[in-house]
UniProtKB/TrEMBL annotation:
Record protein name field: Cytochrome c
Gene behind this protein: cccA
Residues covered by the Cytochrome c domain: 44-120
Annotated binding of heme c, by residue: C58, C61, H62, M97
One Pfam assignment: Cytochrome_CBB3
PTM (free text): Binds 1 heme c group covalently per subunit.
A Gene Ontology cellular-component term: membrane
PROSITE patterns xrefs: CYTC
PANTHER family hit by this protein: CYTOCHROME C-553-LIKE, MENAQUINOL-CYTOCHROME C REDUCTASE CYTOCHROME B_C SUBUNIT
Amino acid sequence: MQKWIMSGLITIACVFAIVLIFTLPGKEEVAEQNKPPAMPEVTMDAAAAEATLKAQGCISCHGDQLQGGAGPNLQKIGSQLSAEEIYKIITKGQGGMPSFKDKLKSEEIANVAQWLAAKK
């Protein structure tokens, strides 16, 4: 009787392992999911970038003149980070800053990133 129980448990464990092998994502899929999306090419529109910052409430942390506050000073962020780095931070979030990938279009994020990268 115990042999039948053990055989059954081993069979169930094998079936479960096979199911997991075929349903869990592979290393490549996980790496692709964690990779930030490429920054789209857009023509910078300063007025639209400023409007996006105000509409999303960015000034509540970064200040109305981007002087900082709860968030870092962004007045000369372009001398420290590239547009791609800024795009990644806005898209994925960092530290206390939330991700905006579900709130803004990638083109809007790219426009804000280019505008901020120009601040040197």
